[in-house]
Automatic annotation (TrEMBL):
The entry's keywords: Hydrolase
InterPro entries named in the record: AB_hydrolase_1, AB_hydrolase_fold, Carboxylesterase_BioH
SUPFAM superfamilies: alpha/beta-Hydrolases
Biological source species: Comamonas terrae
Hydrolase among keywords: yes
All residue ranges annotated as the AB hydrolase-1 domain in the record: 40-257
GO molecular function: hydrolase activity
Protein name per its UniProtKB record: Alpha/beta fold hydrolase
Source organism superkingdom: Bacteria
Length: 272
């Protein structure tokens, strides 16, 4: 299936964060369906609004949803990270507890929404859903992280080397106004030895919304323990473990992932 970029112009909104105003680029999908349930898409650690390509639009069409896609601060065309600012180990908690609530308030999104997050975005979606169950209709987690594994650190170290050599930097620069801001913050914290103690299993225990957790069997950034730990800890978790699939299930197995999300949402809405 072709992966055309998201069409239409992104909008921008300012939100207060960390004592300053930051600009967030965002886009509504299926905007002509104001009464449809909303799904919020949370991108991966090196992602952005544009890097999702056509996946959010396909999910929204398949499941009858309206979509909100945005770039977190430091990514895409949102406000870049200040050069002197290094992320701390709680960077995903801040996104889940501070940035996303502020964005929802700025856009008037008070109704419960579905959350779909990939990789770091999956962890942020989990944290937001567990902290704000009244705002969450259900959660789709693709290759989320709940702990730091050796395979994750090794793969990020290889990515950092590819970035230094230039090839990865050139590819990512198409999707970020300040690519060094995006990559530097992500690689810097993930490769910090102190981050090895990061773990959100305790937070996952608060997850109450219906959840679909998806993991590729060939994921180079995490093992199946990531999603299986969520299933052991949280309520109402359905696992989808995909063969011939790496860290990006929506790119490696797009048809199966889209259909599985559609069925999950349909079933969850019937049971609500």
């Amino acid at each position: 299936m072709p992966q055309a970029a998201i069409t239409g112009a992104a909008e921008r909104v300012r939100i207060p964060w960390r004592g300053r105003q930051v600009e967030i680029e965002y886009q509504w999908l299926e905007a002509d369906r104001p009464d449809a349930p909303v799904m919020i898409f949370l991108h991966e650690g090196l992602g952005s609004l544009a890097m999702w390509k056509d996946f959010p639009a396909r999910v929204c069409r398949a499941a009858g949803l309206r979509g909100l896609v945005y770039s977190r601060p430091g990514y895409g065309n949102s406000t870049p990270r200040p050069p002197e600012e290094a992320w701390a180990a709680d960077f995903m908690h801040r996104q889940a507890y501070e940035v996303l609530p502020a964005l929802r308030e700025a856009l008037g999104l008070a109704r419960p929404a579905w959350l779909l997050g990939h990789s770091d975005g999956g962890s942020i979606a989990l944290l937001h859903a567990a902290r704000f169950p009244e705002l969450t209709a259900g959660t789709v987690l693709m290759a989320p992280h709940v702990m730091v594994e050796d395979i994750s650190v090794a793969s990020i170290a290889r990515a950092a080397e590819a970035y230094r050599q230039g090839g990865l930097r050139e590819r990512l620069a198409r999707y970020h106004a300040d690519v060094d801001s995006a990559f530097g913050a992500w690689a810097g914290i993930w490769l910090d030895p102190a981050f090895r103690r990061w773990n959100i299993e305790a937070e996952a225990a608060g997850l109450r919304s219906p959840t679909l957790a998806i993991q590729g069997l060939d994921d180079e950034y995490g093992t199946l323990e990531q999603v299986r730990a969520i299933a052991r800890i949280a309520l109402s978790v359905k696992l989808l473990e995909l063969p011939a699939c790496g860290h990006s299930p929506h790119r490696d197995q797009p048809l199966q992932v889209t259909e599985s999300i559609r069925q999950f949402i349909q079933t969850s809405r019937r049971q609500a």
